[in-house]
Amino acid sequence: MSRPKIVVVGGGFAGVECLHRLERRLAPPEADLTLVTPTDYQLYLPLLPHVAAGVLTPQSVAVSLRRRLRRTRLLPGGAIGVDTRAKVCVVRKTTGEIVDVPYDHLVLTAGSTTRTFDIPGLTEHALGMKTLAQAAYLRDHVIAQLDLAAVTQDPAEREARLRFVVVGGGYAGTETAACLQRLTTAAAKRYPRLDPSLIEWHLIDVAPKLLPELGDKLGAKAMRMLRRRGVLFSLGTSVASVEPTKITLTDGRVLATHTLIWTAGVAASPLVHTLSTDTMRGRLVTTAELTVPGVDAVLAAGDAAAVPDLAKGGDAITPPTAQHAQRQGRVLADNVVARLHGTPLKPYHHRDLGLVVDLGGKDAVSKPLGVELSGIPAQVVARGYHVMALPTVTARTRVLVNWALNAAAGDDFVRTGFQAGRAARLQDFELTDAYMTADQVEERHHDEPKNELAEHKKHKEHREQKEQQDG
Ligand SMILES: Cc1cc2nc3c(=O)[nH]c(=O)nc-3n(C[C@H](O)[C@H](O)[C@H](O)COP(=O)(O)OP(=O)(O)OC[C@H]3O[C@@H](n4cnc5c(N)ncnc54)[C@H](O)[C@@H]3O)c2cc1C
């Protein structure tokens, strides 16, 4: 008898944690383990703003999968569709070749992409902060604006190049604005022709508060810290349209700028829409045991999945954080093993430990286990948390050494140029256009779509339309 094939899609927090545990819990003859992954590293996303700011090298937050996973087969590519009836995952390899990967158990942990809205010009001109390439691109772009502003004779162009706009007042947007603002402030000293007072950072959010995840007091503290550093806030406001050199806000103001950084939330990987199963707020609905109802042998977790939050109760789902994804990864593994061994599955239950927000230097706010901290104590907790959460000793050492180096020697403001000239739209980095439709997946393996499946699809489309109408 052949060994059961366990296929995991996505080598992020949930996927890697799941495989790491499966390697320990299953003897090699018990199952074949495969990871479908476009890269050979696990990205430690919470420190991505430090890469954009040049505080950390890209390698420090890219944890080698081959160091962490010893016997999992890494399939370089992205899943573009899942046929749950044929039990096949359709994968586009990095060479462009499309292959069918059969599975006995499928674990979907493909994470999320930048959430966008129907705002004219947004997807063409906004820059995102979800991948290593985006962080490196953003760094080069910001430094390039300083270089160009320093040589232009046109005051209007100089002003626009020195104005940077970040949309999204959650932790990703706030940390990105804070870290890059520090970069431009420090860099300005090396540009004798630039008046540093012309550098302007704007943080915009449609919500009335900054960092709502941390509560009113800490959100207000973070705002005060950033205001002291010159960051301008526009809360309760959004973007009406985006053009290459200006954005128009919903309150009618027009900001001349060459830089719009868009971090206004995440949307589940488009892969989830290739299955004909239910979604909630765009995420794949799962049970508390992380199984996907209505299909056989599929589990899901992390940002891609709507996992019931048993600690909160009601119809709450777990927020899209690394803290949850990593812990869900372990339950995924335990439940795949339970399925193989015919033992009961266990539900995912985790009480949120809080959040840390590193604003650079001595500025930070954090709320570990409900305790509100700001300034240096919050920064110690934030950095300590990240060091502990990094999955390998090598990664921890790299990050610590880089932080120390940066504190001692500062930054060199070097534009690497590796990505110069590349298409830089959100979909170019995040490959959101690469997926099959549910119908294409169906047609690939079946001549006749199953009647119940067609009915289910119709029902699902109707529900999704209603969800959209209800906002
Ligand atoms: C800037 C920033 C800061 C953050 N800070 C924090 C923080 O401080 N604390 C916190 O808890 N969370 C934080 N988060 C959120 C956290 O990073 C995510 O919630 C977490 O990464 C989700 O884990 P995941 O395993 O679901 O997805 P990911 O870790 O994103 O992994 C998904 C993986 O799937 C791969 N993939 C995508 N599509 C496919 C496909 N079709 N086929 C195969 N592979 C695919 C991706 O390349 C990726 O490797 C932050 C996020 C960002 C962007």
Please sum up the structure shown.
With 471 residues, the chain is α/β, with parallel strands linked by helices. The protein contains 14 helices and 24 strands.
Question: What do these coordinates show?
Answer:
It is a single chain. This protein is of the alpha/beta class. 35% of the residues lie in helices and 21% in strands. It has helices at residues 13-25, 48-52, 65-68, 122-125, 132-151, 155-161, 171-188, 216-228, 322-341, 376-389, 393-409, 426-430, 438-445, 451-469, and strands at residues 5-9, 32-37, 41-43, 62-64, 73-83, 88-93, 98-102, 105-108, 112-114, 163-167, 200-205, 232-235, 239-243, 246-249, 254-256, 259-262, 266-268, 279-280, 283-285, 298-300, 305-306, 356-358, 364-366, 373-374. The strands form seven sheets. Strands 7-6-5-2-1-8-20 form a seven-stranded mixed sheet. β14 (246-249) and β15 (254-256) form a beta hairpin. α1 (13-25) packs parallel to α9 (322-341) and α5 (132-151) packs antiparallel against α6. The protein is globular. The protein starts with a strand and ends with a helix. The mean pLDDT is 93. The structure holds flavin-adenine dinucleotide (FAD). The site of flavin-adenine dinucleotide has 35 residues, from α1, β2, α2, β5 and α7. Residues 5-329 form the FAD/NAD(P)-binding domain. Belongs to the NADH dehydrogenase family. Pfam families: Pyr_redox_2 (PF07992).
